Amino acid sequence: MITQLRRSLKSKTAKNIVLWAIIAILVAVLGLGSIIPRLFKEDAKSGGIATVNGKPISALSVAIKADEYQRKIQFFKQYFGAEAIKYLKMMGIEGDPRKSAYETVIQQELLEQAADRMNIHLDSDFVATKMSDKDFLEREFSFINFEELFDEFGLLDQERLAIVLRMSRLTIPQFEFILREALKRDVLGAIVSGSSYIPEFVVKGKYMLDFLARKYSVLQFDFDSFLKKEKEKSVSKEELKRFYNQQNRLEKRYWVPEKRSGIAYMFNADSYGVSVDDDEIKKSYEDNKRKLYVKENAKIQARRILFAFEGKEDRDKLLEQARKVQADLVIDPSQFEKIAREMSDDKETAKNGGLLPFFSRGERNREFEKAAFLLQADGDVSAVVETDEGYEIAQRVKRKETEFKTLGEVKSEVRKNLRSRKFKRLFAGNMNNVLRSHEFNKNEFENLIAKASKKKAIELQVKKDDRMSKALFRIRDDVPAFYVDEDTGVVVVLKDLKKRHLPILDSIENTVRDDYYEKQASNMLDAFLKKATKEAKIKSLDELKTLYGNQYRIKMDQTGWVKQNDAEKTAVLREKGYPVEKMLKMTKTGFADDFRGGPQETSDGYLVKLDEIEKFNEQEYEQKMQEIKKGLVGERNMAQIQEFIAFLSRNATIKTNR
Prior knowledge:
Blueprint: H1 2-6, E1 9-10, H2 20-29, H3 32-46, E2 50-52, E3 55-57, H4 59-80, H5 84-90, H6 97-117, H7 124-130, H8 134-140, E4 156-157, H9 158-167, H10 172-193, H11 200-211, E5 214-221, H12 223-231, H13 237-251, E6 259-267, H14 278-292, E7 294-296, E8 299-308, H15 315-331, H16 336-343, H17 347-350, H18 366-374, E9 385-386, E10 390-400, E11 403-404, H19 407-434, H20 442-449, E12 454-461, H21 467-474, E13 481-485, E14 488-498, H22 509-535, H23 541-548, E15 554-558, H24 567-575, H25 580-583, E16 592-596, E17 605-613, H26 618-650, E18 654-656
Parallel strand pairs: 1-4
Antiparallel strand pairs: 2-3, 2-18, 5-15, 5-17, 6-12, 6-14, 7-11, 8-10, 9-10, 13-14, 16-17
Helix pairs in contact: 2-19, 4-5, 4-6, 6-10, 10-26, 11-26, 12-22, 14-19
């Protein structure tokens, strides 16, 4: 297989390869340097962490997928806040990333075995195409930054790839195996999903949900008024005891989690005494200038001939026409300008013989751009490529090479980056040597932390989501933990540990009593909402407010027009606590439904009636129809694949080893 892969790889001399940044990420930050070999040894001893139809599941594959999910969780929480959970759930990532990773790897194995039974064959050209697809590669090898491994022509550098694989303790055969299995899964998924037919009424329904505005009437039932009524009742010690035991059994509600305190020691290049000379600076500049010190990217000027899809039903005939024109132009490229004027459906550029202004990567359609940049000489003609607009042919007119910043302009930056990479490598190496649990030497460690630039006390705390807290709770057998955060190395030492425990009821009786009343009030509110929803079929919301307003605090509101994509309006409603996502799924005018403002027991209750839906816009629907249908086909295909996986799972023997 590697001979097939090499067709799409571009070799360069090894002396021009310096990947300290990637090494630091893989070894120091992610810790893969120590994780991966350990997992291979464990798999060799135990036969993997599970078996699917007798075939072992590698702990390595689960660890890599769990790491990918953990980083996705952190990214989504950082950028989407409270909305992150919704998006992660759509991606199949819920709760513990290790559990999600385990389930994903099991599903992948089921698909791979099904693909093997179907004798799916991978064509070498198909494999080569996928090897230049950064999105596909980064999906399957998420711990590798492939952006650093592609050159300006879109080719993957073989020698750089080999180095990164070695640093992550992966061999070429393992890389080949993972790649092949991923491709088989993709092909099988395409076979299973097939061509999904989406009825027009479904497309129209989706359009109405996503693009038509709605008006609502809302009754908001204040939770505190229900709580006040509930607290008027007395509760016995026996009832509290039953509630306390039940909550501990179901949710471990009153268990006090483990708490830890410690000291964090910070290190940097200065405290480590890291220095670099001019030769190292020059070499680092040469090795990294393509990715770090570009003043202006390479640009291409090209001509195009477009055979547009719009208004043409027979795409096969259109493709045949484009290929015939391309074959003639390969024989006589000088005719490109003339043919573009006569035949191109892009009338703006056709007037100039299809001539486009200079463009760099990322400025035009990806497929057209890729074809244009792969042309080796002025006048060369590309193959026919398919873009969103139609079938296209490109001709290279002129190329401007990449312009780099001079060493003089960036010398201080190069020195800083080089010292940082050198420090990370030294720090990670030292820590990996000193902090081995079976060989930990306290005296040697004390000498090492003398190099710290500063230290910080970590207060007694439960485990938090920041890296320092995670390191603190990673400590076992009093062996310190470490990590690298940008240009700083951090070593965390455990000072105090208070174990997880369950306090007796008497010590927290007031807290349990408050929780009991909240639970009872929540149940009362739920029952009341169900009753009010039934009454809303024959009474207006105004009548309901009058009927129950003397018992509970109730607010009446009219939302005005609300659209799914109106971020400003929906944000205002969310701030009020309204269940916006659920409201926007209501489709029947005059229909009423009840919701809670959130998953918390103390959230308010809402009775929502859909008063009016915006008039159907035929013109907008025609414009949006293909986009909506494409999204629905994707959802339907994914659902079909999940059904197929469920079928495979029901008929498989899956055993967990540990």
